[in-house]
Design brief:
318 residues; alpha/beta; Rossmann fold; 2 domains; seven-stranded parallel β-sheet; 9 strands; NAD(P)-bd_dom_sf
Length: 318
C-alpha cells in the first residue's frame, strides 16, 4: 500500500503543476495581445557573438543585430566568409568584428574568447548558431563526420557558454541562444547524426535554463530556436513533404525578435510547437511509417532534394 504522505505530496505537486500551467498559458495569451514593438529590449551597445556568422542565417542575424545598435562579433572557420560579413555590416553602418575560430578545437575556442574580451569586451548575448550536416544513414556515415557533427552542433556549445557565462552570472544579465532544429524534437531517417546532435542541443538549452533558474540567475535569459528546413547552403534545394521550406531572411528576423523579447523557445513555423506534444503520444509504428521504411526509397521521404539525395550533400557551416 502506498504511503499516504507520498500520495499527498504527489497530489500537491500535480495541483501546483496544473495551476502553473494555467497561469503561464494565460500569461502567454496576454503577451500575444501586446504588440512586439512594446516587448523588445534595447540591445544598443551590447556585444553579440554569433558563431557560424560567415554565411547563411548567421550573416543575416549579424546584419539585423547590428542594425539594432549591437556590436557584432562573428566566429567562423571561413576567413573569407567572416570578412564578407564584416564588410556588409560595416557598409550598412554597423559595427562588426570577425575571428577565424575552429569550434571543434576547445582550446582554440577559449583562446579566441580571451582575445575577444580583450579587444571588444565581454559578450552580452551569445548565439550558438554554427551547424553542419552530412545526411547519410548511420552505416554510411564516416566516424569523423559523426564526431564533427556533434562537435559543431552540440559539444562546442559547452565551450562557448563556459567561456562567456561567468560574466553574465556575475551581472545576472545576459542571453544564451541555441539554434537547434525541429530535427531536435522529431526524428528523421537518413539524418541520424544530425538529429541526435540537435536533440543534444535542445537538451543543453533546457538543462541550462533549469540550472540558471535553480541558482536564482533569472536575469540570464535563454532561447532555443527550432525551425523546419531552411533554404540555406546546408539544405539548399531541400523540400519537406509536409512542412514549408523557410526563407533565410524571415528566419533571421524571427530569431532576432525572439532574442529581443526573451522568448524561451521559438518554433518556426510557430504552429510547430504542437508537434513535440503530439509526437510524444504517437506509437512507435507510426514513427517508423512517417520516417520512411528502412531499405527503400522511403528512407528519405521527409526531405527530398531537387539536385540529388541528401547523402550526396557535403557537410557545410551555416
Amino acid at each position: 500500500m502506498a504511503d499516504p504522505q507520498v500520495v499527498m505530496m504527489l497530489v500537491a505537486r500535480l495541483l501546483m503543476w496544473m495551476v502553473a500551467t494555467v497561469y503561464f498559458f494565460l500569461e502567454s495569451l496576454v503577451l500575444c495581445l501586446i504588440p512586439r514593438s512594446y516587448r523588445r529590449k534595447d540591445i544598443k551597445g551590447n556585444v553579440v557573438l554569433v558563431t557560424g556568422g560567415g554565411s547563411g542565417i548567421g550573416r543575416l542575424m549579424c546584419l539585423k543585430l547590428a542594425a539594432r545598435g549591437a556590436v557584432v562579433v562573428t566566429w567562423d572557420v571561413s576567413e573569407a566568409g567572416n570578412e564578407e560579413t564584416v564588410r556588409q555590416v560595416q557598409a550598412a553602418g554597423g559595427q562588426c568584428h570577425g575571428y577565424v575560430v575552429d569550434l571543434c578545437d576547445r582550446q582554440a575556442v577559449y583562446a579566441a574568447a580571451t582575445r575577444l574580451k580583450q579587444e571588444v569586451g565581454h559578450v552580452d548575448i551569445l548565439v550558438n548558431n554554427a551547424g553542419v550536416v552530412t545526411g547519410k544513414n548511420i552505416m554510411e556515415s564516416p566516424d569523423d563526420s559523426i564526431q564533427r557533427t556533434f562537435d559543431v552542433n552540440a559539444i562546442c556549445h559547452f565551450w562557448t557558454t563556459k567561456a562567456f557565462l561567468g560574466h553574465m552570472l556575475a551581472q545576472n544579465k545576459g542571453h544564451i541562444v541555441t539554434i537547434a532544429s525541429m530535427a531536435g524534437k522529431m526524428a528523421c531517417s537518413g539524418l541520424v547524426d544530425y538529429c541526435a546532435s540537435k536533440y543534444a542541443a535542445v537538451g543543453f538549452h533546457e538543462t541550462l535554463q533549469a540550472e540558471l533558474k535553480a541558482n536564482g540567475k533569472d536575469g540570464v535569459k535563454t532561447t532555443c530556436v527550432c525551425p523546419v528546413v531552411i533554404s540555406t547552403g546546408m539544405f539548399q534545394g531541400a523540400e519537406s513533404k509536409y512542412f514549408p521550406t523557410l526563407v533565410p531572411d524571415f528566419v533571421a528576423g524571427e530569431v532576432v525578435d525572439a532574442i529581443l523579447m526573451n522568448t524561451s523557445t521559438l518554433y518556426l513555423p510557430n504552429y510547430m510547437w504542437l508537434m513535440p506534444s503530439a509526437d510524444a503520444d504517437v506509437p512507435s509504428k507510426v514513427h517508423g511509417h512517417a520516417g520512411g521504411n528502412p531499405g527503400n526509397e522511403g528512407a528519405h521521404e521527409e526531405l527530398s532534394w531537387a539536385g540529388g539525395r541528401l547523402s550526396d550533400l557535403p557537410g557545410c557551416l551555416t
